[in-house]
Amino acid sequence: MTREEAKAILQQMTTSESLLRHARTVELVMEAYANKFGEDADKWAVTGLLHDADYQEYPEQHPNIIVNMMRERGEEEIAHAISAHYTKWGVSYDTLLDKGLLACDELTGFVVACAQVRPQRLEGLEAKSVIKKLKQKSFAASVDREEVRLGAELFGVELKEHIDFIINVLQQYQEELLLQPEAGAQA
């Protein structure tokens, strides 16, 4: 599946700006990890882009709609990874792609949330600040901290290094993602 096809599917099913930005951020982080590990960057990016494509329109059936759509298109690896991006669904983690999506989904969203409450956004954001926010249960309360921990563990990455990696990737796209510093903000 091409990224253009994936973007068309996402845009058909999702209109929420925050969900579209989340899809884009996970796409970017997944692509960067694929490049780091010598994996198929397009497949990893498409998986990140589409993992929540059905959430807005079919929240009660998520992720079954997008998973079935991928299976109908012969994209079994992508379908399996999407079906496994939450540990409580009880799906096995068979590939690095499966583990990568789990590791990147919740934490990428959390890093974006951390950036959004700072005047300087991603500029100067450090892993230690993100880890401190993870300990504040009231901050971004919908983020499942156990999923963050399990994701990093299954993916085989140390949490601080994983956070640093995500921040570094997102900083390269901060203007597109509307995460650039506010005017006059100090880094």
TrEMBL record:
Pfam families named in the record: HD (PF01966)
InterPro entries registered for this protein in UniProt: HD_domain (IPR006674)
Top-level taxon: Bacteria
SUPFAM superfamilies, per the entry: HD-domain/PDEase-like
Domain HD as annotated: residue spans: 20-91
Entry protein name: HD domain-containing protein
Lineage of source species: Bacteria, Pseudomonadati, Bacteroidota, Cytophagia, Cytophagales
